[in-house]
Write a structure and sequence with these properties.
The complex is a heterodimer of chains A (347) and B (165). Chain A is mostly helical. Chain A is built from 13 helices and two strands; from the N terminus they run H-H-H-E-E-H-H-H-H-H-H-H-H-H-H. Helix content of chain A is 69%, strand content 3%. Chain A has a two-stranded antiparallel sheet with strand order 1-2. In chain A, strand 1 and strand 2 form a beta hairpin. The longest helix of chain A has 36 residues. The chains are: A mainly alpha (347), B alpha+beta (165). Chains A and B meet through helix 1 of A and helix 2 of B.
Chain lengths: 347, 165
């Protein structure tokens, strides 16, 4: 690897890390504002103009709070829990292609930290590791509510990962690759995968809600039944990490959905734009477009949160095992038949 | 049996059809409803900066009135204390001394006039009972405080500010 490339990679890692943290930070603010607008309220407006310093104030509060580790908690694991949660949330962004390659001088730089050929599998691996943070934290708290919340999180994630994986398989049958960069390249201009995989996308987004523990699948932190769920015993920045990890997960899964189904950094008429403005500005517009898609998805996450009430636990399991998995398998079969027929007809 | 009111409605439980079982149309409807609220004007009043207007006949803190010459109207007749259903009002009467004519309108006045704001129910019967138009519940809210004794308001808090001529 060349030196210039290496330096660029390191800079990109720092930038992606910073962006995902800032987006997560302002997602907390956006969530409160959006919630307020949906409920005909104003929302936080005291810290700075329109309350835009609210996340900083919240973060400062989290840092300065007293650190409490319950006497009966398993000390080491109690700290490992939130650390693992935030770690797995952050490393998911490594394989996301943020834009087309940018050329500076004679070098071309990929706007992707690493283009591994099993990108989709990597995302799945990281997402499934995320449940360990919750599980360890809930178990180490030595509290019944925490443990119940952790068990719920674990079984929910395992159940929904199956249908998530099955819904992706139908997509992979069409793309023929696991590399996120190639998948993004294939969706050039307006040839987005959502056109070919509408059912698969619906299944995927439902599973994404479950994987990120967002309403209507937020049973692991169901306040009415479990006090606070797996983070009942947590305080100060360790609690902050858990809450933060949820928002980073939301950001990453929005990015994955945008890349897999909604064309990633592709936008209609991108060739015309590239021809008239040059390749680099077109690539930067692509990055902006990708972020616009991501923010729309984050908004959708919040929109759904303030619309739909929480599932009951048996309903959650029914939905996962009896509805989503059969649908996902049907989707695979339909995709297979459809693509075979289209190939035979000569498309 | 026939119902007496004729309003009885027999509900039949219909099994959900496919679209209803798929939930998605219902979810889309819910999303549309919340989106309608997203663009509605917030109903919040940013309290310290803007205050909601009180109604015309709002009954707040009491004030003991002065007449057009700035003399206290109250003659300590005790009708307000008598009418008070919460027994919040107590007073001690005193006789006006020569030279105090500019302070009190009549020969008798209230030397001590106390209202216990924790007992008061702001019913307004005292202002109805007053024959001298001396007490009105035309003030603001009674503010919060730390000690019970501080809620017993004396003349220092109740009497209107003197007219400045």
């Amino acid at each position: 690897m060349e030196t210039a490339d290496l330096i660029f990679r390191i800079v990109l890692i720092v930038i992606v890390f910073a962006i995902s943290l800032v987006v997560a930070m302002y997602s907390t603010y956006a969530e409160r504002k959006v919630a307020a607008f949906f409920q005909d309220r104003i929302g936080p407006n005291r810290a700075g103009p329109w309350g835009i310093l609210q996340p900083l104030a919240d973060g400062g509060k989290m840092f300065l709070k007293e650190e409490i580790i319950p006497t009966n908690a398993t000390g080491f694991l109690f700290i490992v829990g939130p650390s693992l949660a935030i770690l797995t949330a952050c490393i998911g962004s490594a394989v996301i292609p943020w834009g087309k390659a940018i050329s500076i001088g004679s070098h071309t730089f990929d706007l992707q930290v690493t283009d591994i050929n099993v990108g989709v599998l990597y995302i799945f691996g990281v997402v499934s590791l995320g449940v360990y943070g919750v599980m360890i934290g809930g178990w180490a708290s030595n509290n019944k509510y925490s443990l119940l919340g952790a068990i719920r999180a674990a079984s929910q994630n395992i159940s929904y990962e199956i249908s998530m994986g099955l819904s992706i398989i139908a997509l992979l049958m069409l793309t023929g690759t696991l590399s996120l960069k190639e998948i993004a390249e294939q969706q050039h201009s307006w040839h987005w995968n959502i056109i070919r995989q509408p059912l698969g996308f619906i299944l995927f987004i439902v599973c994404a809600f479950a994987e990120t523990n967002r309403t209507p699948f937020d049973l692991p932190e169901c306040e009415t039944e479990l006090v606070g769920g797996y983070h009942t015993e947590y305080s100060s920045m360790k609690l902050g990490f858990y809450l933060f990890a949820e928002y980073i997960n939301m950001f990453i899964s929005s990015a994955v959905m945008a890349t897999l189904y909604w064309g990633g950094y592709n936008y209609p008429f991108m060739d015309d734009v590239a021809a008239s403005l040059g390749a680099n500005p077109a690539a930067i517009i692509g990055v902006v477009v990708l972020f616009a898609k991501i923010f729309l998805f984050i908004f959708f996450f919040m929109w759904v949160r303030w619309t739909i009430p929480r599932f009951r636990y048996d309903q959650l399991m029914d939905l996962g095992w009896k509805i989503l998995i059969p649908l996902a398998i049907a989707n695979i079969v339909l995709t297979g038949i459809g693509s075979t027929l289209l190939t035979h007809l000569g498309y | 049996m026939e119902s007496l009111s004729n309003k009885k409605k027999v509900l039949e439980v219909k099994p959900l059809n496919f679209l209803e079982r798929a939930y998605l149309p219902a979810i889309a409807g819910g999303l549309a409803t919340t989106m309608k609220h997203f663009f509605k004007k917030p109903v919040t009043i940013s309290y310290p900066e803007e205050k909601r207007e009180y109604s015309e006949n709002f009954r707040g803190m009491h004030s003991l009135k002065r007449d057009e010459n700035g003399k206290e109207r109250c003659t300590a007749c005790g009708l307000c204390a008598l009418s008070c259903p919460a027994e919040a009002i107590t007073m001690t009467a005193a006789e006006r001394q020569p030279g105090e004519e500019h302070l009190y309108r009549e020969e008798k006045y209230a030397a001590v006039y106390e209202i216990n704001m924790l007992r008061c129910i702001f019913c307004g019967l005292c202002e109805e009972a007053c024959p001298k138009e001396a007490i009105y519940l035309d003030g603001d809210h009674v503010p919060a405080d730390y000690l019970r004794k501080d809620f017993i308001y004396g003349k220092d808090k109740l009497v209107e500010a003197p007219l400045n001529q």
